[in-house]
Design a protein that fits this description.
- By secondary structure, the protein is of the alpha/beta class.
- 45% of the residues lie in helices and 17% in strands.
- The strands form 3 sheets. It has a 5-stranded mixed sheet. Strands 9-8-10-7-11 form a 5-stranded mixed sheet, sandwiched between helices.
- The protein is rod-shaped, with a radius of gyration of 33 Å.
């Protein structure tokens, strides 16, 4: 016997005082409602309804059990509602703020094909880590060292004027005597690259080639850094695709070459989350497009 369905029939008939009206309210055939209530009476061991008159009334036994039956029906309805909401709960994924909108749209569409309602949340490296730690997202693309990464993005320097072929060496930014009265050229770190495994390597290289401390700076936004590149002939540390988007000239960093790179790994807040695991296994190429790299 379906206990919830039987209780639902009992509650509906009790509220309306009629098998006919109660069955209609429950959108169930009257014969089915009658069978369910009879089965419930056999299960509980007593008559719930008095059928001796034209109007159906509760027996003393039925009056005692009606509140509990009503509560059971309401709890069942609540369970179904919450289950439906859980099935349609978006998978919030913290992603780097540098991910292109078009690539994120393709990732959302690819996830939808796999039955995952994806909600990308752009954020900086530290914020993404905090969102995972506080379980405010179900997964995140965290910034990690390239040796620990699933995806890597080579970095180089973007400048306003075409430097010609070959890499750009950091020591070429060292101020000379002629630059004594002007601000030295700077290398700007955008928020996505202001992380220890990138910043520390550049700091050591800056000191090794004799640049001033002020020649390696962190910018609040990519736009602010790009503005200084255009205004002061500075350089922006970025990926080749970002440089194209900003209409800047990109070259590898001569002293470090491809060893200087962003690294990303997908971290899942709950390792038993089936949708997050499915996203990891089936959407890796689309994630790579968002990061503008390949696995």
């Amino acid at each position: 016997m379906d206990l919830v369905a039987a209780c639902r029939a009992f509650v509906s008939v009790s509220e309306h005082g009629s098998f006919t009206v109660g069955a209609a309210a429950a959108r169930t055939a009257q014969s089915v409602v009658s069978r369910r209530i009879a089965a419930l009476e056999r299960r509980l061991g007593g008559r719930l309804l008095d059928r001796s008159s034209r109007t159906v009334t509760l027996t003393p036994f039925g009056r005692d059990l009606l509140p509990t039956a009503t509560q059971l029906v309401r709890l069942a309805d609540r369970l179904e509602h919450e289950a439906q909401a859980a099935r349609h709960r978006p998978l919030r994924l913290a992603v780097p703020a540098v991910c292109p909108t078009a690539a994120l749209a393709r990732l959302i569409a690819r996830a939808h094909e796999e039955g995952v309602l994806l909600d990308p949340f752009p954020a900086g490296p530290a914020e993404r880590a905090d969102l995972v730690a506080s379980r405010q997202v179900r997964a995140a693309l965290l910034a990690v060292a390239p040796t620990e990464a699933t995806w890597t993005v080579p970095l180089g320097l973007a400048v306003a004027r075409d430097p010609g072929g070959g890499p750009i060496y950091l020591d070429t930014l060292r101020p000379g005597r002629a630059d004594r009265d002007r601000r030295p050229r700077r290398v700007w770190l955008q928020p996505e690259d202001d992380v220890p495994h990138i910043r520390d390597r550049l700091t050591r290289l800056r000191d090794a080639v004799g640049l001033r401390p002020s020649q390696l700076m962190s910018a609040p936004t990519v736009a602010a850094a790009a503005a200084d590149v255009l205004t002061h002939d500075d350089a922006l540390l970025c990926s080749a695709s970002q440089a194209r988007e900003l209409h800047l000239h990109w070259r590898p960093l001569g002293e470090l070459g491809p060893a200087l790179a962003r690294g990303f790994s997908l971290t899942i807040t709950d390792e038993t989350d089936p949708e997050a695991l499915r996203l990891h296994h089936t959407c890796a190429p689309s994630i790579a497009q968002c990061l503008e790299t390949t696995p």
